[in-house]
Amino acid sequence: MKDLFPALDYFAQLAKSNRLATEHDFHPCLCSGPDSIQGVMDSFRKHKNFIMVDDTTSQQTFSNGVGYFRRDVYTVFIVAHYRYDDMAEREQKLNLCRQLFRQFHSRLLHDRDGLGDERLTYLQLNNIYSTELGRYAMNGVTGLYFMVQNEQPIDISYEQSDWT
Known about the structure:
The chain has 4 helices and 6 strands. By secondary structure, the protein is of the alpha+beta class.
């Protein structure tokens, strides 16, 4: 079975089409795990705010007693720049990132349930984890990341022709 949920394209499109994100110049881009975030943000000369979609995923294969499923966990970072010594601005930017996260969550629910977007059929949207960056996690940057799980059925039938 092919992957139904095109996470990288979907989240990049959300970032480009969200009014709040465009008004505050959030730049959509890819990163490869938490270790590569700083490299992406080194382009502060061009962009101050980012919506980064992690192009790596954690996977798990599991059985629910009837069939087998593949669980993919996708991570999206929403980060905003603030003046390092201005804690009031930091709080304002963190609140902006929180608001964007809520808007993304509501759009995911709308697209899956309201529009019946079949690509989102297996997304687990009733329990989305988010973690806020600590005050001194990265100099002059605040925000959060959230993780979305997709659990789609897979076929792991033994095939004799795969073996010598």
